[in-house]
Specification:
Elements lengths: L7 H7 L2 E4 L8 H10 L5 E3 L3 E2 L22 E3 L1 E3 L3 H15 L3 E6 L4 H4 L11 H14 L3 E9 L6 H9 L3 E10 L10 H10 L4 E4 L5 H10 L5 E4 L1 H5 L3 H7 L5 H22 L2 H19 L12 H10 L4 H28 L1
Parallel strand pairs: 1-2, 1-10, 2-4, 3-5, 5-6, 6-7, 7-8, 8-9, 9-10
């Protein structure tokens, strides 16, 4: 596939949207606030899901309250469940408590504990059940509904039975991840089937899955030139510059990404230390370091072969159980990165 150049003006003129994906325990209100203040580029965010309960409404966490969230980033609460009445009841409570004008339905979570209860992606093989669900929700929900889903649970064409159903309801948008539930996050997201789904659905479809670079975004746009937006999750966490890079059409260098990660790290660490106990701070930061670690280890192709110390330092940091041990690991990784960058510079100048 030949990827054409996509300029900032073209993105702006088409009003393309970058959406921050929900990752449990990672994309918290503090994460969203620090990210938007330092980097930006996202139009709206889907919050990590709350689970509906029979005959009850969920407790509304502080993370969803308007006073906890940054201006300039619309927040869409997300619910997980398969009972339309419970969903509508919970959605109304969220609408009243947060003032949101949209609720997102999680129809894509691949976790075994979720799918075993016929929720998330586990509900996808039941078109009739989804039809009944949407009939109840769309009659009672006091705000708009969007859906985050996958191609299917067991087969990659389970979506075909759902398209006529989805087309009958006033759904604001569908965020489609191009994998099936049993894949989890393994393998490749299927761009061809994403394009087929998008052509068949009479609602805006936002792309989710495997866009971790400007080149990746261009590949999607080459297939779907009038795409309304991207949802970015793991790629955006690993590279805080990804959203603005896509909007500008300019890939950032590994050293620029590393500098942005360290800036983000320090701001987040300080924010979490103001809000949480030491143990919680360590766990929050380690959850992020899973994504940051590979980016903080300089590309082996850029340096002399035979070194593996940076990767070992990342593993050591992820095993930390105290803030002191975590900070020691972070300091060692930062120093190792500085030394590696110093070795890379003359190598690049010679080549």
């Amino acid at each position: 596939m030949v990827c054409r150049e996509v300029s900032f003006d073209e993105f702006r003129n088409r009003n393309i949207q970058i959406v921050l994906a929900p990752l449990q325990g990672v994309t918290t209100a503090i994460f969203r606030s620090v990210f938007m203040s330092k980097f930006g580029g996202c139009r709206w965010a889907v919050a990590p899901f709350l689970t509906t309960r029979r005959g009850a409404v969920p407790l509304i966490p502080r993370d969803l309250r308007p006073e906890s969230n940054p201006t300039g980033l619309a927040l869409v609460p997300q619910l997980l469940g398969n009972d339309g009445d419970d969903f509508a009841r919970a959605g109304a409570a969220l609408h009243d408590a947060t003032g949101c004008d949209e609720i997102n339905w999680n129809l894509g979570c691949p976790s075994g504990t979720v799918t075993a209860r016929k929720q998330g992606a586990g509900f996808l093989p039941d078109p009739q059940g989804i039809d009944r669900f949407l009939d109840r929700v769309c009659r009672r929900l006091p705000c708009a509904l969007s859906i985050k889903m996958r191609l299917g649970m067991h087969r990659d064409r389970e979506w075909e039975a759902l398209v006529p159903i989805l087309n009958r309801y006033p759904i604001r948008s569908v965020i489609l991840h191009g994998r099936i539930g049993t894949q989890g996050y393994r393998g490749q997201a299927n761009l061809d089937l994403f394009a087929e789904f998008r052509a068949a659905l009479r609602r805006p479809v936002i792309h989710s899955g495997d866009v971790t670079s400007v080149l990746g975004a261009r590949r999607v746009l080459a297939k779907c030139p009038d795409l309304p937006g991207f949802m970015l999750g793991r790629g955006l966490i690993a590279n805080p510059l990804l959203a603005v890079s896509i909007l500008e059409g300019t890939e950032r260098s590994p050293s620029e990404v590393r500098a942005a990660i360290w800036e983000f790290h320090d701001q987040l660490l300080a924010a979490y230390q103001r809000e949480s106990q030491e143990g919680a701070v360590v766990e929050r930061m380690k959850a992020l370091f899973v994504y940051w670690g590979p980016k903080l280890v300089p590309d082996r192709s850029e340096v002399e072969a035979g070194r593996g110390s940076e990767a070992r330092l990342v593993r050591r940091t992820l095993r930390a159980t105290t803030l002191g041990a975590y900070l020691d690991g972070v300091a060692a990784i930062r120093e190792s990165g500085r030394r590696a960058d110093a070795r890379i510079a003359p190598w690049r100048s010679e080549n």
